[in-house]
């Protein structure tokens, strides 16, 4: 079928694309929150003085980081029900996305924490701060603003990974586009529509991330 | 697991490795063209390079893959699916790697450039003999990360029915019904390939650094610097 590319169909596909976009944004948002929280947890655990904690966590984090998100999506989608956890594909997808990116954010947190001058640790020790207070009052408030730009960039990366969720039956944008295509046998227009929306949203996110970078990048050492 | 199934796995492994290697090579070409193009003096070249980098960094790989396989035929071009996979992966990774190239070239100390000009080297000689050897050493660690991202991205081709490792694993799972084991095994497989690739990249970096006459830390698994 070599019919002309019809732009009107691209326009017609847009409402469905927007529905898919909402799903994709939901997955991104939930996943991002998970990645932020879990990533910090991983980072703190990896710094543990207890080898039995830091090494297994380190190993698991590296393992998840070096293996494809798609395979992890399949894994959780098929295996979770087998152990009795029955959640929607979107929830599974968001969780897997969050877990995968938690391994990246944990690296970012680690670099932020390592970047806090040693003198701060010593001062907290000298002032007899408890471990909890040292972290909450001294270290984290200095470590986190430093790495906000890097963390902001991961939202974009996560959003661009949402198409993979179609493999576990989540109806996000690309999945919706393919569905339209398989009904009308014209894949070009809906896929092009999806592509355009992804591009625009990614560019907008990148622009926003640059604003965040400029605001937080002014942290003096 | 029967021998027939194992054959699928080996074939899948081969396809994954091919996608990774050729995707990396093609991506490297795109990366150098775009990365060097962005530092060009000519506005047109800079503009094109910038468009390439921004567009292909903003596009999800899967969408690009679907586009090459589903949209191109409408315009009369039917790509061999394997080549479409390599192209999509290479375009995507090339855009990220282009930034690495650009950063590495910028990181060569300006004094080197000045010395090269003072020694009356032509621009081509400057590039080949002075800038690139130093830039390449700086490029290899980030490239190593890009390569692992590429390896992970190859699994996406299974969604367009290219028989890579992930696709083979799906077949095995459908045949044997051993869901957990198959996917765990698949993850371990990718993890091992990633380990091999990272080690190769580290070796490359050491070789490149030695050729420059730089000091190389002993031991292949050097201390990870405070990231």
Describe this structure as you would to a colleague.
The complex is a heterodimer of chains A (221) and B (227). Chain A has 221 residues and is mainly alpha-helical. Chain A is built from 8 helices and no strands. Chain A has helices spanning 7-46, 51-66, 69-82, 89-114, 118-126, 131-161, 173-184, 188-216. Chain B starts with a helix and ends in a 16-residue tail after the last helix. In chain B, helix 1 packs antiparallel against helix 6 and helix 1 (3-38) packs antiparallel against helix 7. Chain B is mainly α and 227 residues long. Chain A: It is a multi-pass membrane protein. Chain A: One of its GO terms (biological process) is amino acid transport. Chain A: Residues 17-209 form the ABC transmembrane type-1 domain.
Task: Offer a few descriptive terms.
heterodimer, A: about 220 residues, mainly alpha, MetI-like fold, about 80% helix, elongated, B: about 230 residues, 8 helices, disordered C terminus
What characteristic shape of chain B results from the CA principal axes? flat
User: What portion of the residues of chain A fall into strands of 2 or more residues?
Assistant: under 5%
Examine the coordinates and then state which fold CATH places here, giving the name of the CATH topology of chain B: MetI-like fold
As residue ranges, the low-confidence spans of chain A are none
Give the N-terminus to C-terminus distance of chain B in angstroms.
43 Å
The helix-and-strand class of chain B reads: mainly alpha
Count of separate DSSP helical elements of chain B:
8
Largest sheet of chain A: none
GO biological process, one term (chain A): amino acid transport
InterPro entries (chain A): AA_ABC_transptr_permease_3TM, ArtM/GltK/GlnP/TcyL/YhdX-like, Ectoine_EhuD, MetI-like, MetI-like_sf
Main location (chain A): membrane
Domain ABC transmembrane type-1 (chain A): 17-209
